[in-house]
From TrEMBL:
<feature type="region of interest" description="Disordered">
    <location>
        <begin position="42"/>
        <end position="67"/>
    </location>
</feature>
<protein>
    <recommendedName>
        <fullName>rRNA biogenesis protein rrp5</fullName>
    </recommendedName>
</protein>
Amino acid sequence: MTPIEAINNVAKAYQDLAVVLMAVADKTIGVPVAQAMTVDADKPVEEPKKEAPKAAKAKAEKPAKGPEEVITIEQVRAVLAEKSQDGFTAQVKALLESFDANKLSAVKPEDYKDLMAAAQDIK
């Protein structure tokens, strides 16, 4: 497992934990402390029925097209570094400039997918 994969796994675990904590918070709003501290292990934990305002807003802004892979800056950096180490430093620099950036951190996150695809085509 690469360090990037490990980081992604940890991030996913934190997201899963956040869902559970939100469900607990929703179930315990207005419940007396003594009752909230009682654990009923026989009942399965229900998913929260209402979404966080930011999540609802994001869904409203983006039409559902199915699951879309999110490309991170670390993934793009790994591909660009590999190409640079293989002797394509000039092409990597030109590719970044084609995205109006002089360094990777200046590239817009929405362009990561296109940048990574273009970088993988460098031969």
